[in-house]
Design brief:
Blueprint: H1 34-51, H2 59-72, H3 77-89
């Protein structure tokens, strides 16, 4: 991963709200940057501590895994295991992972940017 994550990198995935920190800590509607800054920090720590490198082809998968870890951090190993098994066994075979070891690789871009 080269460089730092930026808010503009998320523009296609979510409705983006901004806070002008030179004027206020948070916007009048309660918008703040605490959660995304915390998440970016977790992504950077995962890059250093868990994965050691990210492939841009699978970057959204890495981020999804880190988000899952964030959501499940208060559950024990048993709860996490059953959560993974329940979700994996209730879904059809992934067209991106089926035949992965035989050379079937996912396309370069799995998600599309939302219209602005």
């Amino acid at each position: 991963m080269t460089g730092r994550l930026r808010y503009n990198d998320l523009a296609g995935l979510n409705k983006l709200k901004r806070v002008n920190h030179s004027k206020a800590y948070h916007a009048e509607d309660g918008t703040n940057t605490n959660q995304i800054e915390s998440f970016f920090s977790r992504v950077q720590r995962a890059y250093v501590g868990i994965h050691h490198r990210f492939s841009l082809r699978y970057f959204d998968w890495y981020v999804a895994e880190i988000a899952w870890r964030e959501d499940m951090r208060r559950h024990g190993n048993r709860g996490q295991t059953f959560s993974v098994l329940r979700k994996a066994l209730s879904r059809p075979t992934s067209r991106f992972l089926c035949g992965y070891w035989q050379g079937n690789r996912p396309p370069d871009l799995i998600w599309e940017k939302a219209p602005v």
